[in-house]
Amino acid sequence: MPRTSQVTSTETPPATPPRSVVLSRQVAALVEVASITVALGLSQLAAGLVAPGSAPFQAVADTVVRLSPEGLTEFGKSLEFPALGIGKGVADKLALLVSIGAVILLVAVLAGLASRRRALPGRAVIAVLGVAGLAAVIFSPVFAPLNLVAPLVALIAGLAAFDGLYALATRAETAPPDRSGGVSRRRVLLGAVAVGIVGIGAAVAGSSLGGAAARSRNALFARIRPLQPAPALPPGADFASVGSPTFLTANRDFYRIDTALRIPEITAEDWALRIHGMVERELRLTYDDLLARPLLEQAITLTCVSNEVNGNLISTANFTGVSLRDLLLEAGVAPRAEQLFSTSTDGWTAGTPTDVVLRPDSGALLAVGMNGEPLPPEHGFPVRMVVPGLYGFVSATKWLTDLELTTFDARQAYWPQRGWAQRAPIKTQSRIDRPRPFETLTPGPDGTVALAGIAWAQQRGINKVEVRLDEDGPWRPARLTPQINLQTWRMWRLDVALPPGSHYIQCRATDATGATQTADPAPPIPDGAAGWPGIRFAVA
Ligand SMILES: Nc1nc2c(c(=O)[nH]1)N[C@H]1C(S)=C(S)[C@@H](COP(=O)(O)O)O[C@H]1N2
Ligand SMILES: [Mo]
Fold it and tell me: Is residue 518 within 8 Å of 418, Cβ to Cβ?
């Protein structure tokens, strides 16, 4: 009775107790490698479908970059393969991805070999890798809830594939193929290879899904060449050695603020901009039209209105782009068009006072490049606005697709609709970077400790930063780095001999109009935080 015998052979426990089942090295390693491959592949596909950029593999790589000591990433950046279209910044990414892939493969093989007798090591390694991927996505600076899908797919698919393949492999050892219901070792190998191939296919499909914008961006590295590069930074442009930020912020460290749950994906080829409304001539521009114009490069410090006193929503980059003023002059702006209303592909809007952009020295750009690269996807690829001197919410539209000249009455932008200001020039502000709150500073050989920070008043420039010790002390002028241009921050530093014990410092900046940062605290809403930063710390 074939039917009964089949039932018996699958339902009765194997003749030999499972403990004595030992998988061959080849099968055990392959089961683990195939499971991890399908986990990574399906998660890549899930990321491509629901949230490009959320693949756990990529997130782990980004985390490695973020956490690695400067030396490691600096080494990577010196790699360059121009013949392959791989420039600095791409090569290190590639090298890093390949190395992480190699490490995972090695871990998979070792975990597989450790699982010849028991499934536990193999399962545990998949779970640990899965949780690591989940953590990398959660703690990424660009976290959004939808980004959880891909790492969860990885975790579940990895464990399911492993359990399935491991059971099959165990069955092959306990029930030889001549017994009905048994499985040949060959079938196990074929099964594992098939699972692995599904994984690779899913990875390829997922990458091509989410990859059109990324490929478009990669092809542009050589084309972002400013006619007028930003002047080289003079030595001593920052006090990074004692704790100020570096003058330029690396793209990956640049603060990011937007309402986008997933980064909009547009290729440069598909991008187009309409400048219309209260103009004499409507303009339509493609990406190539932009690149055909003179590209300027300038250092600009961007600031978010949500930045709290002593907060970190401020960064500086060399932005490359086309003069926005020139474009508006070409379109011919009607005198009554007080608002330049910009819209991004994801529907977010900003309203910029037209007069600010039209000032001869406004420095306002339609930016295509950031620190020598095409704009990163999260900073607005392919094109964004940058208007020095205004908070980002009224000026710095990323993934820009539409510019309408209008009045403030006619249209209200995203944040002003929610109670934020209509005009939002950046306030004169400063920040203490060193010491950190409650840090203990140890005096150097000369008996002093270094205090350091930043000050900014874009489009006016910083003239002075003063530091006050212990609330009732006198205001002492700090040393300043050179003012690179009026659109950027300046760093300050003060070396003081202080008695051991607890201390409190405050700082305040004075801009080039002579206005000093107000002591009156204000919250970020509606037009930016104000007040003097203060830090409590200790001297050893
Ligand atoms: N499309 C779009 N552009 C946007 C935003 C947004 O939410 N969506 N946020 C703005 C705000 S509030 C700021 S402070 C800057 C931040 O730019 P960054 O993320 O490149 O630092 O982008 C601006 N541009
Ligand atoms: Mo912002």
Answer: no
- The residues whose Cβ lies within 5 A of ligand 2, an ion, are 257, 304, 392-393
CB of 325 within 6 A of ligand 1: the answer is no
Please report which helix (H) or strand (E) contains residue 478, including its range. Answer: none
* CA pair distance 540, 538, nearest whole angstrom: 6
SS3 393: helix
The boundaries of every CATH 2.60.40.650 domain in the chain are 429-539
From the candidate CATH numbers 3.30.70.790, 2.60.40.650, 2.60.120.10, 3.20.20.100, the one assigned to the domain spanning 429-539: 2.60.40.650
Burial of 361 (0-12, 13-18, 19+ CB in 10 A): exposed
Residue by residue, DSSP assigns 70-130 as HHHHHHHHT--BGGGTB-TTTHHHHHHHHHHHHHHHHHHHHHHHTTSS-SHHHHHHHHHHH
Q: Which ligand is nearest to the CA of 314?
A: 1
> Where in the chain do CATH 3.90.420.10 domains reside?
240-418
Q: How far apart are CA 357 and CA 341, in angstroms?
A: 12
For ligand 1, whether the C-beta of 381 sits within 6 Å is: no
CATH superfamily entry for domain 240-418: Oxidoreductase, molybdopterin-binding domain (3.90.420.10)
Alpha-carbon torsion, ordered 365, 366, 370, 371, to 10 deg: -40
Residue from 251, 254, 258 to probe ligand 1 pocket by mutation (most atoms less than 8 Å from CB): 258
Cα–Cα distance for residue pair 206/42, rounded to 1 Å:
8
CA 540 – CA 537 distance, rounded (Å): 10
Integer Cα distance of 275 and 277 in angstroms: 7
User: In the beta sheet, which residues pair with residue 462?
Assistant: 511
Give the Cα separation of 323 and 361 in Å (integer): 10
Mean pLDDT by 10 residues, the chain (540 residues): 44 51 92 96 90 80 66 44 48 75 94 95 96 88 79 96 94 72 82 94 83 86 93 96 97 86 82 97 97 97 96 96 98 98 92 98 98 95 98 97 97 92 97 97 96 98 96 94 97 96 97 97 95 97
Instruction: Give dist(CA 239, CA 492) in Å, integer.
Output: 7
Ligand (nearest to CA of 259): 1
pLDDT value, residue 184 = 84
Residue 522 three-state SS: strand
Planar angle of CA 460, 464, 467, nearest 5 degrees: 135
Q: Is 142 in the pocket of ligand 1 (CB under 6 A)?
A: no
> Model-level pTM?
0.70
Q: Which helix (H) or strand (E) holds 364?
A: none
Helix (H, G, I), strand (E, B) or coil at 185: helix
The answer to whether the CB of 515 is under 6 A from ligand 1 is: no
CA distance 492 to 494: 7
